[in-house]
Amino acid sequence: MAELWGIIGGLSEIRGFQVVWENLPYFLEGALITIEVTALSVAMGMVLGLFAGLFRLSHRVLLRSVAIAYIDFFRGTPLFVQILLLHFGILPYFGINEAFTSAIIACGLNSGAYIGEIVRAGIQAVDKGQMEAARSLGMNERQAMTYVILPQAYKIVIPPLINEFIALLKDTSLVSTIAVAELTYRGNLVYANTYQAAWVWGAVAVIYFIITKSLGLFGDYVERRLKTE
Amino acid sequence: MIDIVDVYKSFGKLEVLKGINLHIDQQEVVCVIGPSGSGKSTLLRCINQLEKVEKGHIYVDGEEVTDPKTDINRVRQKMGMVFQHFNLFPHKTTLENITLAPIKIKGVPKEEAIEMAMSLLRKVGLEDKAHVYPANLSGGQKQRVAIARALAMQPKVMLFDEPTSALDPEMVGEVLAVMKDLALEGMTMVVVTHEMGFAREVGDRVIFMDEGQIVEEGTPEEIFNNPKNSRTQSFLSKVL
Ligand SMILES: Nc1ncnc2c1ncn2[C@@H]1O[C@H](COP(=O)(O)OP(=O)(O)OP(=O)(O)O)[C@@H](O)[C@H]1O
Ligand SMILES: [Mg+2]
Predict the structure, then answer these.
(1) Which residues cross the membrane (chain A) (predicted)?
(2) From edge to edge, which strands make up the β-sheet containing B2-11?
(3) Which domain holds residue A98?
(4) Is A12 helix (H, G, I), strand (E, B) or coil?
């Protein structure tokens, strides 16, 4: 115990440690905003992704084309560019100028495209005989999806969905470029004032890691639960 | 009950049905036999439009299923289909498997649907399995549930595609027994099968298919004891 205090006493002499320690509440608040941006984006992405995935598999050419164009564009261009394009180039025309809102729209659209592919793969992984059995009972395509296919696809979809959640959480660091005061943005500010690169970015990295690791463990738990179900 | 008129079906370049004509009466039990790849499943799947035909017409209970204007979902309710691999819904219990379509599609009140499902389960001898998931049923039990599920829509025709081919030998009998009961009750049935004993005993008529055509048809007596076509003869000499 005495040794531990000794170590902390020693650390508190170091300038970088002092910077991190003093800014810890500021960083944690940023982490909360990071989580908020991620959660809202994923919520939007799940709705978009469900429709993108369903439309992607639709027999209607128009729906399918729209879904393909959407998925291809957002997976085929950098999120960084999408954020800049939406925030400065497109959303102002819709009266949206607030960086936080832009960030969620950009990240939501981006994750919707990835989730769309996850949903498509999940639906396709359900045995073909399930759709046939449902249709042979007189269900239309929509009923078969709702009552038979999607309830089975969701189990297949959850693990990759949690991976997407984690990937997006890390990618939200890019919205620091439009001055959303999330974790990376705050790291940048503190670094600019102190030049303690190793300590500041080290602390930021550790905070990100703690969040993604917790999500990952939660994902493993859910996966185990689904398997035994 | 079912009229198939000059039906053709191809998968890409492969011609699978080459001019099928078949009339099936109400209450008739027609067994379809023939070598692998001869188009038996495809014919059955065309009847309920799981496959679209290229040419020709199919009528079920007076409605043309091959007419794009027909509401196929409504007509499919008149045809129960039983698959080789059961295709039970794994996320639903036995009871829910049976009640799902009546409740959601037909709008049958829940209590009524459950009551009917229980009486169907009694009929196939699986009353005690009502709340079990398919994963915990044997193959024979699964197929009996699948039959009950199809019957719950109160169909006028039942289509069976090799319902016992995926079963361990000791479970074949229990499924055939259920099918036989159904035939005795007067259900119109089309049964694709390799169970020659069943075709002989329960079938009113046997159809022998080869290479996308109906090569020979007749009573079980005629087909099994006195086949006229040489292809029928050689097929039967291999399977009997
Ligand atoms: N969806 C499909 N796409 C392409 N070819 C198919 C498809 N379904 C069936 N076929 C082909 O059509 C032919 C007839 O198939 P079908 O399943 O009707 O035969 P079957 O008489 O039922 O044979 P089995 O006794 O093996 O079940 C086969 O050559 C098969 O490979
Ligand atoms: Mg077959």
Answers:
(1) 31-55, 76-94, 100-123, 144-162, 198-218
(2) B14-24, B2-11, B55-60, B63-64
(3) 38-228
(4) coil
Tell me the backbone φ, ψ of residue B32, rounded to 5 degrees: -110, 120
Residue A132 inside a domain? The answer is: yes
pLDDT at A229 over 80: no
Residue A85 belongs to a domain with what CATH number? 1.10.3720.10
Question: Chain B contact for A20, CB < 8 A?
Answer: no
Contact call for A136 and B81, based on CB within 8 A: yes
B62-93 confidence digits (pLDDT tens): 999 999 999 999 999 999 999 999 999 999 99
Ligand 1 nearest atom to the CA of residue B45, by list position: 18
pLDDT tens for B17-54 read 999 999 999 999 999 999 999 999 999 999 999 999 99
Residue A3 confidence (pLDDT) = 80
Residue in B with minimal Cα distance to A129: B87
Closest Cα to atom 31 of ligand 1: B37
Looking from the CA of residue B84, the nearest atom of ligand 1 is 27
Instruction: Give the residue extent of every domain in chain B.
Output: 2-89+156-237
3-state DSSP call for residue B11? strand
Q: Which residues on chain A are in Cβ contact (under 8 Å) with B161?
A: none
Q: Is the CB of residue B214 less than 8 Å from the CB of residue B42?
A: no
DSSP secondary structure letter of residue B88: -
Tell me how many domains chain A contains.
1
Best to test chain A binding among B61, B96, B104 (most A CBs inside 10 Å): B104
Beta strands in B25-119, from DSSP E residues, in sequence order: 29-33, 55-60, 63-64, 79-82
Phi-psi region of A145 (alpha: psi -120 to 50; beta: other; left: phi over 0): alpha
- Pick the atom of ligand 1 nearest to B43's CA: 18
Which of B38, B44, B47, B193 to probe ligand 1 with, by most ligand atoms within 8 A of CB?
Answer: B38
pLDDT greater at residue A223 or residue A207: A207
Overall CATH class of domain B2-89+156-237: alpha beta
In this structure, is residue A28 part of a structural domain? Answer: no
> Could you report the per-residue pLDDT of B173-219, keeping only the tens digit for each?
999 999 999 999 999 999 999 999 999 999 999 999 999 999 999 99
- Tell whether A87 is covered by a domain: yes
Residue A4 lies in a domain: no
Please report, as a single letter, which amino acid is at residue A225. R
CB–CB of A15/A196 below 8 Å?
A: yes
Lowest pLDDT segment from A29-38, A56-65, A218-227, B200-209: A218-227
Q: Taking 90 as the threshold, does the pLDDT of residue A188 lie above it?
A: yes
Q: Is some CB atom of chain B closer than 8 A to the CB atom of A133?
A: yes
ipTM metric: 0.92
